[in-house]
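Researcher: Let's do a round of design. I'm pasting the structure tokens now; please hold your answer until I've finished.
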């Protein structure tokens, strides 16, 4: 581990086979270029734009992913439920009720360093789940019982920018990186907060660029113009990879640098 820096790449919502394909052919080059130690991928839309299945998880891991996070669409495919039960590095938001299958955080060792990856979901404009703020506090307490873990990364899957910013300020200094997902639109507010937590409101989407959040734009337009529940389809256009890259101090657990990833492929 050079310079006590742990390098994390977190990529945002992979949309359908197009998004999986973008990573399969390009992610390893990005990992090599950035010298990333840990790769986290939000895969909740990897199966036809809604949900996650074993095939897409396999594709994301073969591409270079270490931990797969999700969000509110993780329940869309029946196969996804069993996947959550059987695969510890595939997460669902931790603030779902305890009876829900799966787990909300995972501790992984990469490059000789232990890091905890936490998945949480917002409530504004989403489901009425347990409070993500209080859930985060309880999870951090559990993680910190292991004195060898001082790097904590949170994928906060949420709609509201206000909720995301408030959440980040609430946890500033307690975790290393908070990356928002869900909206599929990358924000330009990557920063290191006053107490050392790296933050971005939304990392964006990996999938068709010329689209409406991944979907075929003409169908999306007709949905708005007619108010008919037309089935959305993944757009067939040139692809992009969106995400965030952060360097974290292995001694303090605080962010050293953070930058957006936006690559056309």
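Researcher: That's everything. Go ahead.
Model: Designed sequence:
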């Amino acid at each position: 581990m050079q310079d006590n820096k742990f390098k994390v790449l977190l990529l945002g919502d992979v949309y359908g086979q197009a998004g999986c394909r973008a990573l399969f052919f390009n992610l390893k080059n990005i990992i090599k270029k950035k010298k990333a130690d840990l790769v986290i991928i939000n895969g909740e839309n990897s199966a036809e734009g809604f949900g996650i299945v074993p095939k897409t998880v396999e594709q994301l891991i073969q591409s270079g992913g270490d931990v797969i996070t999700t969000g509110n669409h993780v329940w869309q495919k029946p196969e996804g439920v069993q996947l959550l039960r059987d695969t510890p590095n595939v997460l669902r938001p931790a603030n779902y009720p305890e009876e829900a299958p799966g787990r909300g955080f995972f501790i992984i060792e990469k490059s000789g360093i232990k890091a905890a990856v936490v998945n949480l979901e917002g409530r504004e404009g989403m489901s009425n789940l347990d409070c993500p703020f209080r859930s985060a506090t309880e999870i951090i307490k559990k993680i910190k019982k292991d004195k060898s873990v001082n790097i904590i990364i949170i994928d906060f899957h949420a709609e509201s920018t206000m909720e995301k910013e408030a959440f980040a300020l609430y946890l500033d200094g307690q975790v290393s990186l908070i990356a928002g997902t869900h909206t599929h639109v990358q924000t330009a507010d990557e920063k290191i907060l006053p107490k050392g937590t790296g933050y971005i409101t939304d990392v964006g989407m990996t999938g068709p660029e010329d689209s409406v959040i991944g979907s075929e734009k003409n169908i999306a337009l007709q949905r708005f113009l007619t108010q008919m529940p037309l089935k959305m389809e993944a757009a067939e256009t040139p692809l992009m990879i969106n995400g965030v890259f952060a360097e974290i101090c292995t001694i303090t657990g605080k962010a050293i640098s953070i930058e957006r990833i936006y690559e056309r492929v």
